[in-house]
Amino acid sequence: MKALLAFAPLFLRRSRAWLLALLLSLITLLAGTALLGTSGWFITATALTTAGLAFNLFVPSSLVRGFSFIRIVARYGERLVGHDATLRLLSDLRGWLFARLFPRLPLPDRSIRHGDLVSRLTADIDALDTAFLVAIGPWLSALLVGAGMTALLAVLLPGAALAYGLAMGGALVAVPAAMVLCGRGAGRASVEAGAEMRMAVLDGVAGHADLVVLGALGSAARRFDATTAFASGQRRRLGRQAALGGLAVQGLGAVALVGTLWAGLVAVEAGALEGPVMAGLLLAVLGSFEVTGTIVRSVGKATAAMAAAERLTALAELPAPVQEPASPQPLPRAGAIAFEEVTFAYPGLPPVLEELSLTVAPSERVAIAGPSGIGKSTLLRLLLRLADPQAGRIGIGGVALTALRSADIHAHMALLSQDSPVFIDTIRNNLLIGRAGAAEDDLWAALADAQLAGHVASLPQGLDTVVGEAGRTLSAGQARRLCLARALLSKAPVLLLDEPTHALDRDTEIAFFRVLAAAATGRTVIMVTHAAIPEGTVDRILTLRDGKLV
Ligand SMILES: Nc1ncnc2c1ncn2[C@@H]1O[C@H](COP(=O)(O)OP(=O)(O)OP(=O)(O)O)[C@@H](O)[C@H]1O
């Protein structure tokens, strides 16, 4: 509940729309209740008229038509306003989440898996954005209609008001509260089970080929079955609770009806109430209880919204990997990159880098070699300020990274990382990520530098070929070269290359190293690689060993 309240400002931003939706929903319910009440009164009075009493037909028949019309128009308006506000809230929620997520990227290592993240960004947001439309709005209007009907009964049939008020209160407050209390655990487990299912599907799809080849498809399927069985179990639990809640609400409706009938008959007997009015009140009571029909669904939705709110706030409150400076300094365009006695360890692990020092002059090309797992990529991560060292200082042109805006640091360096992705888009758009608005000639030049121009030219749609999942498939080497072209296209004065020739055959690798020197002229290059580097490609080759460069 506390987590849900954290989203109150976002809901309140659309408060006028919600109030209008609430008002229209109230008019719909009141018109529906009044329609039933008037019809009951009208039908009974007409029957009695045939028994010899005088009756004006015109007023009730126009009331019936009037209420029907009002109900239809108000319902339409409520849907229009409510859905419009919900869609706007959806966009506000996404904006809120992404604004909090981006400064926290990369997310603390292995804290959240992809499937879970997808779940939070989609299903949890959906659960929250319809909370007003499906849960809060109907509940509030039902509460207001219940209060109004109790007041009407207190005036016309005081004997029934108490029974009705208690039954309505029970249906709108006690039953939902009991359902929330009992269903909280199952609701949370069901949301988490949904996320587990998504993770199992994504893992299965991503690793399908390996699972087949390793003969592990059966165990993956069993794990998926277990996840789905758990999710269905939780949903069944919630379903049972909803059915019991529905039964309780129906029972309370019957209590209110019988109470009103009882008090009505006594009042008619005593001559305190006319028969047609009693019939009208009975039907109005029935009509007003119709609104409680949505309550059970609303409770389910509210429980899901609470669980979703908890998961989203947990995501939004993850610690940021680095703190942005309060008053950032401008980034010097030129100037040496300097690591000064830098020590860095991943949480709970021994240091990867220990008192490491390195100075790279502007336009210098440095390669860093070393065995797998020694800390080469970590060094690049620190330079991009994706994490801060525990000791020592990293700076550009004499200014510490901690005094620079992360966005400025990232604009200063282009990265080709070990797992740079090919986006599901055209080759052109994949390249333009490196430099928005780059001219066609520059795109081809970057492709040529990455040894990919020939392949792209041979494709019928050239630069406009869609690549990536569901598009044209590139070989691992071609995909790598596309990412490389993207990095080369960037105008960043510093190029960081992490295993740039990974997945290239030796001939292409040698060709790549040859063009790198030319393509990177005037830029600083720091390249991490296992490959044997041909003479003349870089100015210096250093080796990372025991946390230091030698
Ligand atoms: N996010 C992380 N959390 C904890 N430990 C990590 C993390 N990333 C890397 N490590 C560990 O830190 C060490 C250095 O990793 P790093 O990726 O920097 O090595 P590398 O030299 O680039 O290896 P490779 O050449 O295989 O890419 C490794 O032992 C690795 O297991």
From TrEMBL:
Coiled-coil residues: none
Membrane topology: Multi-pass membrane protein
Keywords: ATP-binding, Membrane, Nucleotide-binding, Transmembrane, Transmembrane helix
Residue intervals passing through the bilayer: 41-59, 130-155, 161-182, 242-265, 277-296
InterPro entries in the record: AAA+_ATPase, ABC1_TM_dom, ABC1_TM_sf, ABC_CydC/D, ABC_transporter-like_ATP-bd, ABC_transporter-like_CS, P-loop_NTPase, Type_1_exporter
ATP-binding among keywords: yes
PROSITE patterns with a match to the protein in the record: ABC_TM1F (PS50929), ABC_TRANSPORTER_1 (PS00211), ABC_TRANSPORTER_2 (PS50893)
Chief localization: membrane
Subcellular location, record wording: Cell membrane
Record-annotated ABC transmembrane type-1 domain positions: 19-304
Domain named ABC transporter: residues: 337-550
UniProt family annotation: Belongs to the ABC transporter superfamily.
Entry protein name: Thiol reductant ABC exporter subunit CydC
Gene that this polypeptide is encoded by: cydC
